[in-house]
Amino acid sequence: MTQTLETLVHNIQQGKEEWDVLYKSEKKRVLNWCGGDEDMSQIAWIKLFTNIQAYDPERPFLTWAKTVVINSVINEAKSRKRKEIATLPEIHKCTDEDAPDVAAEKKELSIIVRECMDTLTNSGNKYSEYLEYYSQGHTLQEIADITDSVLGTVKSQLHYGKLALKKELKRRGIDESSFE
């Protein structure tokens, strides 16, 4: 006898170990809701697992599950986009293995980035302080503690600071491909 999804989920909410049954019966559907992206599907399953107690048995399970999955996909896509935008250009330090011309180019880029950061600092932008701490290798939480800010403010200020830094670099004729 097969049980309904609602019964299965009710059993899971009651502490019965039936996740494997639910996963096996719904993995293709969840994967489809995630656009075929396996990573997104795993993130969605984690969200379903951690939020299962929030499911109201008076409502259809698939409606609730699809909402959780779709919201997970949207949040993950936004997060990925923020990470793409927020990534500072990577400047590699010179090593003994670098050819002299490569070492000179890296040093020159490093000087230009430093000048751009100084320009942002001198222009009085609030985010320049956050960028400075970040460039020194501080974690986001450390920056929050140093500046007496909440973590969300640090992330926001770094985002805008990085955008301003990229804009300043572009104004000076330096594009991101120079940092690869």
**Backbone shape:** elongated
Low-confidence stretches: 85-92
Order of helices and strands: HHHHHHHH
Strand content: under 5%
Instruction: Report how far apart the termini are.
Output: 59 Å
Count of helical regions: 8
* CATH homologous superfamily label of the largest domain: Winged helix-like DNA-binding domain superfamily/Winged helix DNA-binding domain
Tell me the number of structural domains.
2
CATH A-level architecture of the largest domain: Orthogonal Bundle
The largest pleated sheet is described as: none
**Structural class category:** mainly alpha
For the record, the CATH class of the largest domain is Mainly Alpha
**Mean of residue pLDDT?**
78
* Helical residues, percent: 55-70%
How many whole angstroms does the radius of gyration measure?
24 Å
What's the CATH topology label of the largest domain? Arc Repressor Mutant, subunit A
Number of strands: 0
What would you say about this model in short?
The protein has 180 residues and is mainly α. Helix content is 69%, strand content 0%.
Task: Please describe what this structure looks like.
Mean pLDDT is 78; it is low at 85-92. The chain is built from 8 helices and no strands. The chain folds into 2 domains: 5-85, RNA polymerase sigma factor, region 2, helix turn helix motif (Rna Polymerase Sigma Factor, Chain: A, Orthogonal Bundle); 89-179, Arc Repressor Mutant, subunit A. The longest helix has 26 residues, at 61-86. It has 180 residues and is mainly alpha-helical.
